[in-house]
Amino acid sequence: MGAYVHLCLSFLAVISNYNVQAFDIPDLRYLKAYISDDPDGPYHEFLDYSPDLRDQGLDNSIKRVCLTGIWFLYSDYNYSEESTELWGPVRVNGCLDFELTLSTSSLRYAGSPYHLDDSYYNLYEGINYCGREFRGNTNADSLLEFDLRVSSVIICGQSPWTFFTGLQFTGEAVCLYPANIATGNNISLHWNGLPTMELLGLPDNSIRSVAKGCLTDNVYPNNHLQVELGDAVELGDAVELRDAVKLGDAVELEDAVELENAVKLGDAVEIGDAVEH
């Protein structure tokens, strides 16, 4: 079901090699944040949102990450519109080293809190996956406080989702397919995301209801072909890049990119509000 996400603090712990250890579940979502590029160095393991990395002693200190899932790392607290940079790595049991220590003050994941490839959607009040979010895994005939306030979207799992500009599944509709696949260790994550509604073909702040499945002939991407990229995929256009990418005017996620480093959203983008669950 849909959920209006409220602020709360994540786990509090000092950095160690064994804090908040992941359970022995093959498709568990996690992010390990290191303060150096040493793979054997100390790290903090996140299984949930963290609106303020000062609580873990990691504010502006992350140099390396190992992760499974879609994770967003923001340069300001609470995923705020004041953020000037956003990193959005997508991995299945993969790692990233950064040339410079990240200016990261909050982080959160996208997708189901239950299983990695469950069918799920995240709707964000800000563009570029920032701000407060409405999320769920079932039909929502109304978005409650988020009515006419959605500016970006992520879907996960193998099901498409249909987004409507009217209440109770009426009005203009677009079907979004999970056209990208991240894989690793025989585990797959299907996903797709758009940092603005215009890229989905809808006006900003126009979504009013959501239904599981493809309930319209208006489909995005129009070929809805799945792209398999192996262990490492990032949020961006279909291009292989070696360095961090700064995303500007027209960013589409209909295809996935294999990147050596995380996608970085800098001065050329605007970042929305934030709140956490």
From TrEMBL:
Q: What keyword terms does UniProt attach to this protein?
A: Signal
Q: Which gene encodes it?
A: LOC108667785
Keyword flag Signal = yes
List the molecular function annotations (GO) for this entry: transferase activity
Q: Which residues form a coiled coil?
A: none
Q: What is this protein called?
A: Uncharacterized protein LOC108667785
Q: Does the keyword Signal apply?
A: yes
Q: Which Gene3D superfamilies match?
A: Crystallins
Query: Transmembrane ranges?
Result: none
InterPro entries associated with the record: G_crystallin-like (IPR011024), Hexapep_transf_CS (IPR018357)
Q: Which residues form the signal peptide?
A: 1-22
